[in-house]
Design a protein that fits this description.
CATH superfamily: Aldolase class I
Largest sheet: 8 strands, parallel
CATH class: Alpha Beta
Strand content: 5-15%
Helix content: 40-55%
Number of strands: 8
CATH architecture: Alpha-Beta Barrel
Order of helices and strands: EHEHEHEHHEHHEHEHEH
Number of domains: 1
Number of helices: 10
Shape: globular
Distance between the termini: 17 Å
Length: 247
């Protein structure tokens, strides 16, 4: 099955008005490589402005609340993101699971909240170094996926991002065999859970993707693109990743 490559930059807590020229330049790269779906998930304060500069890229948010409204100071609903101009949202990123204590149930609820507002969703799963070294990485990630996957999950609106947490921001990367093993296991779990549509759902790799390793990572079976952190902040480092996905 042919799945269109998806490359998404997660700007995390980076990005001010001064960075809009980078959004525009990345949007131009996206337009030049139309075979690849390209997006930037920027801080909420930048969504509206980035949406005006995005070119061929989509703009997404980095989190949303489970509920639509309420007494949740500092939180943003999926509807707020959509109104600001976001068309995608990330849920369950490892940094939120660790820093904000988000549970699998929280993540499933956020995915449904995003979908209810017409947002496409990237749902993150992944293991720590301790779990990787214990030899339990695959069972751990599959259990996390099963508990985080919302009811009604479908390839039309949901993608999965596998994050080996121990790689994020470290420059370390699993072997291609380890990546292939995990992505194959996730694919199997998706098919088991949702049927043939699991073969259409895109699975992104999200651990220190950069210009030097992107082509090799994207060539691995069942790797349908990447969720990219620091390398997505500038077109000089993100552009080659988009090009690698288009190759």
């Amino acid at each position: 099955m042919t799945r269109r490559k998806l490359v998404v930059g997660n700007w995390k807590m980076n990005g001010l008005r001064a960075h809009l020229p980078q959004v525009a330049a990345i949007g131009a790269e996206a337009s030049a490589h139309g075979a690849v779906e390209v997006g930037l998930c920027v801080p909420a304060t930048l969504i509206g402005m980035a949406n005006e500069a995005r070119g061929g890229a989509f703009i997404g948010g980095q989190d949303c609340h489970v509920k639509a409204t309420g007494a949740h100071t500092g939180c943003l609903s999926a509807e707020m993101l959509r109104e600001a101009g976001a068309t995608w949202v990330i849920v369950g990123h490892s940094e939120r699971r660790a820093d904000q204590g988000e549970t699998d149930a929280d993540v499933a609820g956020k995915a449904l909240a995003g979908h209810a507002q017409g947002l496409k969703v990237i749902l993150c799963v992944g293991e720590s170094l301790e779990i990787r070294d214990s030899g339990e990485a695959v069972p751990f990630v599959l259990a996390q996926l099963e508990a985080s996957l919302p009811e009604g999950a479908a390839a039309q609106w949901l993608s999965i991002a596998y994050e080996p947490v121990w790689c994020i921001g470290t420059g370390r990367i699993p072997t291609m065999e380890q990546i292939a093993e995990m992505h194959s296991a996730i694919r199997g779990a998706l098919v088991k859970r949702i049927g043939e549509d699991g073969n259409a759902m895109r699975i992104l790799y999200g651990g220190s993707v950069n210009a030097a390793n992107a082509a090799e990572v994207f060539a691995v079976a069942d790797v349908d693109g990447g969720l990219v952190g620091g390398a997505s902040l500038k077109v000089d480092s993100f552009g080659p990743i988009i090009e690698a996905a288009a190759a």
